[in-house]
Structure formats: structure tokens, C-alpha cells
Design goal:
The protein is of the alpha/beta class. The protein has helices spanning 16-23, 34-44, 51-58, 63-78, 83-101, 112-140, 147-153, 155-171, 177-189; strands at 192-193, 198-199, 204-206, 212-213, 218-219, 224-226, 230-232, 250-251, 256-257, 262-264, 269-270, 275-276, 281-282, 291-292. The strands form three sheets. It has a five-stranded parallel β-sheet. The chain has a five-stranded parallel β-sheet with strand order 3-6-9-12-14.
Length: 318
């Protein structure tokens, strides 16, 4: 609908009603008959046999509560608290976790209390692992000015602190919660690590954007990877038959994988001490100490001429 401005009143601000019409935002119920609204209510309510409806009707833990708990818990790993603060913060984190676990279906051998107790007992070890990741980042990045910059500003450390927490819950067979955590970290950092991935000590992701590490990936100690690396699975026509099967690669100790490399397949093993070059596509194992590179592209270098447009240069005068 076109806004109507009366002659002689050009400077008058539109009323809220006219402003809604200008922006296309209808007032409550405007433009919809009660019958249309009621039909939408009927279609969106209740439980049907489609997958989304069935998932919702079974009940889903509130993702925002998982995010809130994640933020609070990973701060215990990344930041320093005094003992008085910890004596109040750790019980609070434990209480919130037990509440989340009460809303999911745990294995029959577990209870919210037992999983929570085991998780709290793991916090010191998780902190030590993350400290080693910080040290690896400092050793591997000459741009780092100090440990404090890495701890608070590096996306890889944020992603790894969340991953190590999520992996601990994954090992205890907690459903859904670790997956929500990993997707939250993915959203915040651009680093996509499935909570099932097993990652060793002193792991460093430089830059990090676009990194994908699949569920059954196994990574050893002292491994460094760069942005855009995928440790993924090979796709088949019916990929669901691979559920529960190792389908992502194994990366042994002291491996470096440069930007854009794609390493696929559950039987693919990158031998210790290997270097995988940028943009390599690899679906087969390589022995320890290998250097895997692609043939360099053929560059075309031409001198600029008055009547000649250089490659990749836009014809600005047209």
C-alpha cells in the first residue's frame, strides 16, 4: 500500500498506524481473517507424524539454557577465580547441569547426579588440557603477544574450551546437550567440531574460520591446523548406513595441516610428523613423515598495455 501524504502537511510525522503501513508491518490481526488465523493455529499446534513435530512433541531441552550453562562453565576453564568465588560458582554450575540432565534421556546406568559429579571431577583435567592448548597457540603463532591475548581473544581457544566440555559429556552418553554446545561454538567462532571428535594435547587451530572436524575424527598430540581444513567423511548414496561407523580420518602426533586441505574417510590415517599442504584433497593414508602437496597452479603474468586488460582486472572504463 502506498503512503498517502495530504497536501499542505508534508513535514508532519506519520502516526504509528500510518508508519506500520509504510513499513509493511501490519497491526495485530490486520489483513488476516479470523478463519485464516485459526487455520494456522490448527496446523501449527498438536503432534503430527512429521519428524520435526515428533521431535518437539517428545520434548526438547531449551537450547538457551544450554548456552547459558556453557558460557558459565567454560569461563571456569578460561579465566581465573579465587577460592571463595569457586566455592559458590562450581556448585552453581553443577546445579544447572543437573537440571539440564533431568530433561534428557540418560543411559539406564547413569543419573543426573552421577553424571554431574563425574563432570565436576573432570574440571581440573579439562583446565590443564586447555592450558596446553594456549601454550601451543603461543608457540605456533608469532602474532601472539602473550598468553592473556590467546586466552581471551583467540576463537580456537573459545572453541576448544567448549569442545573439551562437550566431549566430556559426550563420553558420558549425554544426548543432545553436547551437540547444542558444539553448534553454539560453531556459531560464535566459525569452527565446527563435533563433540565426539577425540582431540589430543596441545592442539592449535590458527585463524580457525571454516574448520570442520567430524564426529569420529581422532587427532593426536601437537597437531596444528589452519583455516578451511575439513576432517570429514566420504559421502555415499545412503550415508545413514554409516551411522556409528568410523568415517572420519585419524591424524597422528606432530602433524601440520595447511589451509583449505580436505582429508576424508574413516580409514584415512595421516602418519606422525607429516605436513599436508594447502588445498590438498586426500582420501588415502600417508606414512609418517610425509609431505603432501598439490601441483602449483600455472600463473599467467602479463605486462599492462594501453589496449590490453590484465587478467582479473575489471574493465573500469566500460
Amino acid at each position: 500500500m502506498t503512503a498517502r501524504i495530504e497536501k499542505g502537511r508534508p513535514s508532519e510525522a506519520p502516526t504509528p498506524r500510518s508508519r506500520a503501513r509504510v513499513t509493511g508491518a501490519p497491526a495485530s490481526g490486520e489483513g488476516c481473517s479470523p478463519e485464516v488465523i485459526e487455520e494456522a493455529v490448527r496446523g501449527l499446534s498438536g503432534c503430527s507424524d512429521n519428524p520435526l513435530s515428533q521431535a518437539v512433541c517428545r520434548g526438547i531441552v531449551d537450547p538457551q539454557r544450554v548456552v547459558d550453562w556453557t558460557n558459565r562453565t567454560e569461563r571456569l576453564l578460561r579465566f581465573q577465580f579465587d577460592r571463595a568465588e569457586l566455592r559458590s560458582e562450581i556448585p552453581a554450575v553443577a546445579r544447572l547441569l543437573a537440571g539440564l540432565l533431568a530433561e534428557v534421556e540418560l543411559p539406564t546406568s547413569s543419573s543426573p547426579e552421577s553424571v554431574t559429579s563425574g563432570f565436576v571431577a573432570s574440571l581440573v583435567g579439562l583446565r590443564e588440557s586447555l592450558a596446553e592448548d594456549v601454550a601451543a597457540a603461543f608457540d605456533g603463532d608469532p602474532a601472539a603477544t602473550g598468553y592473556e591475548e590467546i586466552a581471551v581473544a583467540y576463537p580456537a581457544i573459545r572453541a576448544m574450551s567448549i569442545h573439551r566440555i562437550a566431549h566430556e559429556l559426550y563420553l558420558r552418553q549425554v544426548p543432545l546437550v553436547p551437540r547444542i554446545m558444539s553448534e553454539y561454538a560453531h556459531d560464535r567462532t566459525g569452527i565446527d567440531i563435533h563433540p565426539g571428535a577425540r582431540i589430543g594435547r596441545r592442539f592449535f587451530i590458527d585463524h580457525g574460520t571454516g574448520v570442520v572436524i567430524g564426529e569420529t575424527t581422532v587427532i593426536g598430540d601437537n597437531v596444528r591446523i589452519y583455516q578451511g581444513v575439513t576432517l570429514g567423511a566420504r559421502s555415499i548414496k545412503n550415508s545413514s548406513t554409516l551411522r556409528g561407523v568410523k568415517r572420519h580420518p585419524t591424524v597422528e602426533n606432530d602433524v601440520t595441516i595447511y589451509a583449505g586441505a580436505k582429508i576424508l574417510g574413516g580409514e584415512t590415517v595421516i602418519g606422525a610428523g607429516s605436513v599436508i599442504g594447502g588445498n590438498v584433497w586426500l582420501t588415502a593414508s600417508v606414512p609418517p613423515g610425509s609431505h603432501v602437496l598439490t601441483d602449483p597452479p600455472h600463473n599467467v603474468v602479463r605486462r599492462e598495455d594501453r589496449d590490453e586488460v590484465l587478467p582479473l582486472q575489471l574493465p573500469w572504463d566500460e
